[in-house]
Amino acid sequence: MRILHVSDCYLPRLGGIEVQVADLVRSQGEAGHEVEVVTATPGETIAGVHRVVASMPFDLPVHPRGVGHMLRLMAARRPDVVHVHTGAVSPFAWMGVRAATRLGLPVVVTVHSMWDPVTRGVYRGLDSLFGWSRWNIAATAVSRAAARPVRAVAGPRVPVDVVSNGLDLSSWRPQAGDVVPSRGDEVHIVAVGRLAPRKQPVRLVKLLREARARVPRSIPMRATLVGDGPARGTMERFLRSHGMQGWVSLPGRYSRDQIRELLASADVFVAPAPRESFGIAALEARAAGVPVVARAQSGVADFVRPGKEGLLGRSFHELVVAVARLTRDRELRESIAANNRETEPVRCAWPNVLAGIEQSYKLAAGRV
């Protein structure tokens, strides 16, 4: 099958969508498909990656004549399906949808983000102007939480399936020979993600402070918050003003190998963002055997059940209680960790993800 992926952002930019699309391209290529990418992200020349780049303010990944460029590219390549990847608002990706529908090509739109009330209003307005919900497209979302607002806006005319993000589970699973140095009673709490307001990193350090207050001083705590972004300075000031530098560290961005090594020493993983559409970092932690604490209304709830793979909370207060509980209760923590090591989130394994995506491709082809 000839597959053309369209994404505003792609490598060398590093983010959830960029890495997930790159892994999908690699997995489909290994499965024998002919896969190409068109993106508005500048970068080095790579075989199969078409960069439609313009000089834009703030290096925005969009091209003012993107539809025309992609019409010519798609007419020349004639892919069997065009797979478009969108975030909250992705103008270049939607140009790809428009170009593909004009040419009568099957189109699948994957929504990688949570549509908040403002975003839903934007898409309703765009539907009034352009009638995109009447185009012959099929859609997928990366979790049940992400699918709900898309279905509410698109209505019954656009089928919206849930197809999980993919992960190579074997590369995160603890190996029999792995030896983790004993730390006594110390509990190591880990979080991984971009330090941007949408991820609520400042509320994360506040969460840790309140959880620490609920745990006896006889139980030592340590926290490692991996990532970088615009909220880092605010977080550092909060840590200094509350005397938390001794047990909370901000080491910056880590590679996948570094994150894998960090998770081997983790006792609890925290993903506090309520608008987390999926939570690939939380999935990596769950696959590595670490109990996960996350929002019940986020996409993490698709692979974390309360008391089984971790604990879920619907509010900031409930997350504080969950982190404190896991820190105090070694037996609960170890039982969840044992369950995570012994079971796999198989629906997130690449073979199952590819099967779900191919089903959406068939649905899109039938709608043309």
Question: What's the helix and strand layout?
Answer:
Blueprint: E1 2-7, H1 16-30, E2 34-39, E3 49-51, H2 66-77, E4 81-86, H3 91-102, E5 107-111, H4 117-130, E6 137-141, H5 144-154, E7 160-162, H6 169-172, E8 187-192, H7 201-214, E9 221-226, H8 232-241, E10 248-252, H9 256-263, E11 268-271, H10 280-287, E12 292-295, E13 310-313, H11 316-328, H12 330-342, H13 350-367
Parallel strand pairs: 1-2, 1-4, 2-3, 4-5, 5-6, 6-7, 8-9, 8-11, 9-10, 11-12, 12-13
Helix pairs in contact: 2-3, 4-5, 7-8, 7-11
CATH architecture of the largest domain: 3-Layer(aba) Sandwich
Largest sheet: 7 strands, parallel
Share in helix: 40-55%
First-last Cα distance:
17 Å
The overall strand count is 13
Question: Strand order of the main beta sheet, please?
Answer: 3-2-1-4-5-6-7
